[in-house]
Amino acid sequence: MTEEAKKAAPDFSNWSCPLPLADYPTIVMGHGGGGKLGNELVEHLFLPAFRNPELENLGDAAVFDLGSGKLAMSTDSFVVQPLFFPGGSIGELAVNGTVNDLAVSGAEPKFLSASFILEEGFPLAQLAAVVNAMAEAAAIAGVRIVTGDTKVVERGHGDGCYINTAGVGVLRPGVNVGPHRAQPGDAVLVSGTVGDHGMAIMSVREGLEFESAIQSDCAALNGLIADVLAAAGDAVHAMRDPTRGGLASTLNEIASSSGVGVEIDETRLPVRPEVQSACELLGLDPVYVANEGKVVFFVGPEAADRVLAVLHAHPLGQDAARIGQVTAEHPRMLVARTAMGANRVIPTQIGEQLPRIC
Amino acid sequence: MKYLTEFRNGEIAQRMAREIAQIATRPWKIMEVCGGQTHSIIRNGIDQMLPTGIEMVHGPGCPVCVTPLELIDKALAIAAQPGVIFCSFGDMLRVPGTDADLFQVKGAGGDVRIVYSPLDAVELAAKNPGKQVVFFGVGFETTAPANAMSVHLAKRRGLKNFSLLVSHVLVPPAIEAIMSAPENQVQGFLAAGHVCSVMGYWEYPPLAEKFQIPIVVTGFEPLDLLDGIRRAVIQLESGRHDVENAYERVVTFEGNRSAQKLLSEVFEVTDRAWRGIGVIPRSGWRLNADYRDFDAEERFQISGIHTEESPLCHSGDVLRGVIKPAECPAFGKECTPRHPLGATMVSSEGACAAYFNYGRFISAEELAGVGKNS
Questions:
Q1: Residue B116, number of CB atoms within 10 A of its CB
Q2: What SS3 class is residue B9?
Q3: How many other CB atoms sit within 10 Å of the CB of residue A108?
Q4: What is the C-alpha to C-alpha distance for residues B266 and B297, in angstroms, rounded to an integer?
Q5: B94 to chain A: which residues are within 8 Å by CB?
Q6: CA pair distance A112, A104, nearest whole angstrom
Q7: How many CB atoms lie within 10 A of CB A42?
Q8: Of A241, B49, B60, B166, which one has the greatest count of Cβ atoms within 10 A?
């Protein structure tokens, strides 16, 4: 270092930098990441344009009454890559995703539609495999695919196969669940290990090969949810399947909708060791990683043990755990008690979770 | 999980925190250099476990934060060119330049890809001979060997379509710069364990001697961090200023000799601009004359870059430990993680973002004292 350089003291006063342009003028991938960007599209574009009482609830499904009992309706689109992954395919996802959105709204799923957007050149054998997977998933979930549509786009304008499904279900009598109904004192339960689906997808994407194949948890949850509702009825205040954005986004959404605080104990969070390892490697947090076969329950404290026992008795709920509770403190925030005994806030992420540099 | 769970034991952590409280007789300010350590301190709540007076100052060791705006703008300009595949680690995609970020370039049709290793980018170059493949090589000494290996391999394989956009920065000159700043309050350092796994810690004894400060090579798990802090406090209390290694399972004095050899083969030391701080002499690496052909800045000759930073941000003061994030007038008002004005509010490793996330539900008085165990 020269004498001159030594004299030139560094100037920290202008330390200012990354100003992420939050107000993106174009769609970016983060708008589909299950975080704040997507929420803002809903709040500032879709909701004002379509506003009506059924939509305003912003539940996983809309609930309405046509005079002969309450119905629930939901829709979801599936653009996953790769189309086939350990533990499932876009076919199972397309059926189970909509089935689960109906089920967590307290409905018994009945009928599904299926629309395919196919890219020119997509192998028919792969389409058949996807369709068969859908048929099998529908049979397991006890729903019927009753209508559909097919469109083909030119090569290069799609990614092989996109699927949209919509579904209708009948609301179970006596059930009154909703993201706004969580109350201080409620126990928070999760039906099994978190992060499996997201890490299964990541493990087969280009450039990453893990030693042990992580399986997606893709499954229809209507059976498990029916058992819980039968055992606990209106003690179940809120349910949601933590898909994109993971457990963190789901708990934050319910904390926000209900105006309560949610506390979880990190040491009680069920995470498979291979998922934890893969997350450590990539600098990801399992609470933000997607699930496709898990559900979070907010239940009155008196029913917590009963619900946990029902979950443990079901094949999809073996690893269920009571992970926390609802509090009147820190409303609309999710706070985790760390293994060290300290607290940390788990915010909703802005867009997609990105692997860190180091 | 071996080498992780053992270092996350809550009971032992509480015991170590109590030990630190017994040792400390007065306030000390200790800087952890690395953003990865900041992340771990905040994620695990280590700062809340420490006794009153032991204050962790979060250093400039977040590669996302210190990469100069001008280089981000160059990256955006290169990534937007037709025929270019622009590869980067994930978290650089959200860092905005003057007008846009890499996500927007991707949204507008640029071929921007997240890779997990620069060697994946070399493979992409081999598979796409008709395209120019550029890897955004930023970071400290930790990420440098893999970046060096990428150009080394590209040269050996004769890949003319691969290049590196380099902004490597070095820890020892940053420590020197922080200690030389007139308002410096830092009294001891936790050196970044991963950097030292590559470089060893032979560069640190002259710094410890020159500035009379203890430097403890420290890891990233809760018990690693508490051990590093404990050792720094013991030294401070007894007036010592030694270099200690609290990360022996990974770091040796010499470091990774083969990596260092490769680095000296590919890179040369250069003056480097740090975002918001300015140029620190001899604080970075660039490709040397043998590898200049692989330098994306040479290959693409981007000119006409005009950068503009926010005038409201005080993150330089935050970094030196002069003010707490909450004392910045823009904190939580103009500046939030959603609309950050400064580096420290951007990534989860930044001090302001961490404080914002904690501070939202505790009072201003408590906030000013975050890091104290009441």
A1: 16
A2: coil
A3: 18
A4: 16
A5: 18, 20, 30, 350-351, 354
A6: 16
A7: 13
A8: B60
Distance CA A238, CA A252 (A): 13
Q: Does B196 touch chain A (CB under 8 A)?
A: no
B360 and A333 in contact (C-beta within 8 Å)? yes
**Strands A334-337 and A261-265, sheet pairing:** parallel
Fold of A187-345: Phosphoribosyl-aminoimidazole Synthetase; Chain A, domain 2 (3.90.650)
CB count within 10 Å of CB B240 equals: 12
d(CA A137, CA A89): 11
Bridge partners (DSSP) listed for residue A74: A167
- Chain B residue at shortest CA distance from A335: B358
CB contact under 8 A, A354 and B357: no
Q: Does this complex have an ipTM over 0.85?
A: no
Q: Do B96 and A19 touch (CB under 8 A)?
A: yes
Burial of A210 (0-12, 13-18, 19+ CB in 10 A): middle
- For residue A1, the chain B residues in CB contact (below 8 A) are 176, 281-282
Q: Which residues of B touch A344 (CB under 8 A)?
A: 42-45, 357-358
pLDDT in tens, A245-258: 899 999 999 999 99
DSSP state letters, A196-259: HHHHHHHHTSTT---SSPPPP-----HHHHHHHHHHHGGGEEEEE---TTHHHHHHHHHHHHHT
Q: Which residues partner with A337 through β-bridges? A: A265, A343
**pLDDT tens for residues A271-304?**
999 999 888 888 788 999 999 999 999 999 999 9
Q: How many CB atoms neighbour CB B25 within 10 A? A: 10
Query: Please, which residues have CB within 8 angstroms of residue B280's CB and are 6 or more apart in sequence?
Result: A10, B173, B174, B176, B177, B271, B272, B274
Placement of tokens 């500035």 in the chain: B211
Closest CA relative to residue B228, chosen from B58, B45, B37: B37
> CATH fold of A60-173, please?
60s Ribosomal Protein L30; Chain: A; (3.30.1330)
Across A106-115, B314-323, B332-341, the highest mean pLDDT is recorded for A106-115
Q: Which two tokens stand for residue A197?
A: 């689906």
CA dihedral A75→A81→A86→A88, nearest 10 degrees, is: 30
**Radius of gyration for chain B, computed over Cα atoms and rounded to the nearest angstrom:** 21
Using CA of residue A171, residue A177, residue A180, residue A181, what is the dihedral sign? positive
Which one of A13, A351, A356 has the shortest CB-CB distance to B316?
A: A13
Residue of B nearest to A281 (CA): B116
Model confidence, pTM: 0.80
Question: Residue B312, exposed/middle/buried by CB under 10 A (0-12, 13-18, 19+)?
Answer: middle
Domain boundaries, chain A: 60-173, 187-345
Which chain A residues have a beta carbon less than 8 Å from that of B309? 14, 16-17
